[in-house]
Structures are given as C-alpha cells and as structure tokens.
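Batch queue: ligand-bound targets. Current item pairs a single chain with copper (II) ion. No template structures supplied; prediction is de novo from sequence plus SMILES. Inputs echoed for audit trail.
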Amino acid sequence: MMKRNMKLKSIAVVAVLTIAFTSCSSDSESTTEESDATVETEVASTEVAAEATITVEDAWARTSPMDATVGAAYMNITSSADDALVGASVDTSVAMMTQVHETTTAADGSMGMQEIKSLPLLAGVKTELKPGGYHVMMMKLVKPLVVGETVSITLTFESGSTQIVEVPVLEEAP
Ligand SMILES: [Cu+2]
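Prediction returned. Tokens below.
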C-alpha cells in the first residue's frame, strides 16, 4: 500500500514537472497552471475516496431446457463500499421480466424462492449468487438459454450505479 502511494505521488510530481518544463509562457501563466494542477489533484483524490468500485466475477447462466419459462444466472459481487443490489434486467428479446431472488426453505423442507428487493453488499465482502441461494431470475423467457451464448444482465445498485455483465450460458458452474 505504502509503496503504491509513493509511486502515485512520484507520477504526480513528474506530471507537474512536465507542465513546468514544457511551458514556455510567462511566469504568471505557469503559476496559474501549477495552481490548477493542485486543484485537480485535490478533486481527484476526493473522487477516489467517494467512488466505490463493484466487481462482478464468475458470472454464468444455467442453460434452460427448451420448454422452460425461467432461467437463472449466478455471479459473485464485491463492492468496495457498502451498497445493495436492488435490481437486475435483461433485454426483452431474452426475457420479459427479471428479478433478484433468494431460495427459501419452508418449515416442511420444501424449497421455494422469492423476490428480494435489496440484497445487501457489505464493503469488501464477496456476496455469492449461486444455485440454492441468491440468483438472478429471468422469467417469461422469450427463447431458451443455449450454451455458447451470452446474456447481458444489467445490475442496478442502491448507490445509483449500474453495471452490465456479459454472462455466458453454461451447463454448470465455471
Ligand atoms: Cu428464482
């Protein structure tokens, strides 16, 4: 971490020096440029602190039988800041309705599932969407999910950001 910070700092210094050396203008102008650079650096570091990154890994969708009306997609989601998955959607050429589901087990042991409006993502913690757990459910499939194809799933997060994930259709988890 320290090493990386040091490296970033030296890159910033090089950038400022480059501006100074390439500037053939008057002293007053180069002063202006330097102060601009300082302001930009401050803004940039504020953005870095506030901007969360959300990483989606190991996404896959299960191939669906010809007569199936629903399909499921799975993935691992890690957000650098606390957030929540509040929605998922696919193009209507794939499925007419898409929801985030959780698998439930009733008192009698029977399995079911229900929509979950907000799936919490704790900062730095990998949240798994996997068979038997959370999943993205594509309903009213327009056509079967065929191995070798990919489905673009748009994830919406509580923070307001969205992410499009290219999800390969597979027989089983990668
Ligand atoms: Cu489901």
